[in-house]
Amino acid sequence: MKLLIDNLDGGGPRDYTPAVDAAQAPRVLRRKNRPSELRFSLLADTPDFIVPANGARITLGRTNGTDVFTGYIAKNPVFEYLGWQERGPLYRYRVVAISDEFLLDRKTVPDRHPFVARSAGDALRQLTADLLPGVFDTAGVQDVEALGWYVCERQKSWTEHAAEIGLRARAVYRTAGGKLTFAPIGQTVHVLDESDPSFSPEALNFASMGRQLNDVIVLGRTEPQAHVKDYFVGDGLSLKFFLSQQPFSRNRRVLLDEEYRGGSLDQTRWTASGPPGVITVHDGTLEVVGGTGIDGQTSVVFVESVELGGALSLQHGQITFTGASNGLLGGLYAGDVSTANCVAGFRITPAASSCNIQAIVNGIATGAVLTTRLTHRYALTTRIYASEIYRNGQGFHSSVHPGGNGRGGGAISASTRIVLEVHDIDPNNPGSMIAPSIVLYDGVLAAAPGFCAYALVNAANMHATIAFTRIIREVDAEVRSALSGEAFRTCLAGSLSEGNECRVTSEPALQFFPAYVPAANEQIVVRYRGYGQANARVTDPADIASRTRAGDDGIRAGVLAIKSPPPRTSAECENAALAVLDDSVRGGWSGEYSCWSDFLPAADVHPGDALEVNAPSRAAVFQAVVQEVDIQLSDLSTEHSLYKLTFADDVAAPCGFEFEPAGSAANRLLDDPPANAGDFLADLTAAEVTQVASTTITIDAGVAPPAGGGIEVRWSDAGWGQENDRNLVGRFVTRVFAVPRLGRVQSYFLRQYNAAAKYSRYSAALYVDFPL
């Protein structure tokens, strides 16, 4: 082997192999999803010895061209004086080097929008390119697994993010020789068989983990639960209406705030295409002048997809048109940026020297046309209200569901209301700042995609300046109202200065602005999701039965709180519990194996490799994952090294989970019956109140009851099941039915059930606050 050190002083790599202290053999420690480390000592007994510099490049390689370690000296070598020798004073320098990610960890992660609808490998490639563009070869980075949403926290290093991404995808990264690889854990398999002539029985030590689980409760995060609809009626005076529950998304959160500072677009946010000089940034504005005339060729596209879930507001900015224009602004696209793929946006067409603005939905211009004025500014906003908060499920992994084949994940369908509005601002009329916005489109897309590309500009021939762009996660509440005898319309919620009529406060309450006080007998409906803690209990009945003995019911129970990947809903808690049960019913194994490099099961072994252990004489036949590889480089000249492999399976050292203390939140769950996704019927998301009288309320459940089942209605969201009549309003076998009304304010909770006594997972909560 050769130890080459480049002190980055212009002298190139120098061979330090003769100076290596043989009495203290160099050591390489490789760890799963963590930087590798090389420790060695050098003896300096000649005047021309050059002390390795902090940050110097190190390569330790075999004569066949493969590298055992590449990296950088992480700190100044430790000096030690050993005395006077024949050739003068003798010094020892102890050196510590860190693998190639040392370069990345010295950088601060840029302030960027979370990765959305990207693969794990793509997120890792992008993060690497953000920090050191073009430095690392990422051809060996595999996609592995889809990530619905990943936040790049700036206080974390590249290594911490790489480890977290690897955990969520059950994958392992490695850096060597300026190359970054990323692959599913266990993709490379080594066999350790006691019948192999090179096997060393005395060098194998392992232990069986005693904890086995077949009854698992998993606790997750706060989740959206009840499908709530609150019904109010205006009296011509009241501005505030108190909600029956706290909405799941109760705080407004800005996801993107772009002010177009500097002289160019921020490449961590935007990708621009088109002829030079058409798209420019200066004086806090984005300016578009011209285009190729071809749809999609001149564009400004957000680097991440937009998730059409919950309540979302896309403020495309205040636009000033400087001439007749042709193209699309603020477009959401299901695929490539083109008019045909536009799910929702604003179509801009020439109107003499001005422009026409019209809504475009599913590739077709629709609705009213607004003609612009050259002196006015136009704030374009797209509002999204989806029936589901999340549009992609979180996947969970085990040894039998590895990276790329996890439990769960996949698209979540939702109906989505789209509202396209324009706020017309006349700089010479201050009153226009608080004038109501003009709604160009207000409709529901039954099958809207979960994720869309967002192109702020798609210019065939555009002449405009854009002052800012924001993406805001709004309070998860859709407000609609209708005057007596008229159709319902969406009430715009937000700040008064943005042309809105009301806002949802943290009380929780719906607060109208004085200029928009609801008229007498005006009906108001607020739709949102309630909240609660995600949890699930799952069992393995076959394993329980196999362990049942006299005095032992066979249950091996546990309560787990999962920190990462985060189970956001009860359905995801179920998938996480199933992934845990994949491995935990078998118990666990961990251990070590030491041998010389000549007797390794392969030319080299790395953390994340799978190790098939076949030792039937010890009743041990299992597969584990290599966690660490400790290499003592005992003889550099003959390249003989002593390897110690530390391994564990997914019970002893989970490769797809990070747990945290469960706390007291599980106390009420211990007696809950086990459940999984197949035990639930669809929620009654379309249930609504259709008529309110003084003594009765008519409800439309939205669907016909299941055969042999019905619609169960209760006064409170508890006690579900046909054995409990304590808070029961009634069970109905028709879609439309009447229930008693006992007061001005009344709440009803609905779930459907079938002949097998399966119920909806979450209730439809209907709340009425009408005068008697």
Description:
With 772 residues, this protein is mostly beta strands. The protein folds into 5 domains: 2-99, Phage tail proteins - horseshoe like beta roll fold, CATH 2.30.300.10; 107-184, 3-Layer(bab) Sandwich (Phage tail protein beta-alpha-beta fold); 189-211 and 587-648, Beta Barrel (Elongation Factor Tu (Ef-tu), domain 3), CATH 2.40.30; 253-474, Jelly Rolls, CATH 2.60.120.200; 678-769, Immunoglobulin-like (Sandwich), CATH 2.60.40. Helix content is 6%, strand content 48%. It is built from 5 helices and 55 strands. The strands form 9 sheets. The chain has a 16-stranded antiparallel sheet that branches. Strands 1, 2, 3, 4, 5, 6, 7, 8, 14, 15, 42, 43, 44 and 45 form a 14-stranded mixed sheet that branches. Helix 2 packs antiparallel against helix 3. The relative contact order is 0.14.
What's the structural blueprint in terms of helices and strands?
Elements: E1 2-6, E2 13-15, E3 27-31, E4 34-44, E5 57-61, E6 67-73, E7 78-85, E8 88-99, H1 102-105, E9 115-119, H2 120-131, E10 137-141, E11 146-150, H3 158-169, E12 171-176, E13 179-184, E14 189-193, E15 204-209, E16 215-233, E17 240-242, E18 253-258, E19 270-273, E20 279-282, E21 285-290, E22 299-302, E23 306-307, E24 311-321, E25 326-333, E26 342-351, E27 354-361, E28 364-371, E29 377-386, E30 395-396, E31 407-408, E32 416-425, E33 438-445, E34 451-466, E35 469-473, E36 477-482, E37 489-490, E38 502-505, E39 509-512, E40 523-539, H4 541-547, E41 557-564, H5 570-584, E42 588-596, E43 610-615, E44 620-635, E45 640-648, E46 658-660, E47 680-681, E48 688-692, E49 696-700, E50 710-714, E51 728-732, E52 736-740, E53 745-753, E54 759-760, E55 764-769
Parallel strand pairs: 10-13, 14-43, 16-41, 16-55, 47-54
Antiparallel strand pairs: 1-2, 1-5, 3-4, 3-44, 4-8, 5-6, 6-8, 7-8, 9-11, 12-13, 15-42, 16-40, 17-39, 18-35, 19-22, 20-21, 21-34, 22-34, 23-34, 24-29, 24-34, 24-35, 25-26, 25-34, 26-27, 27-28, 29-32, 30-31, 32-33, 36-37, 36-40, 38-39, 41-46, 42-45, 43-44, 44-45, 48-49, 49-52, 50-51, 50-53, ...
Helix pairs in contact: 2-3
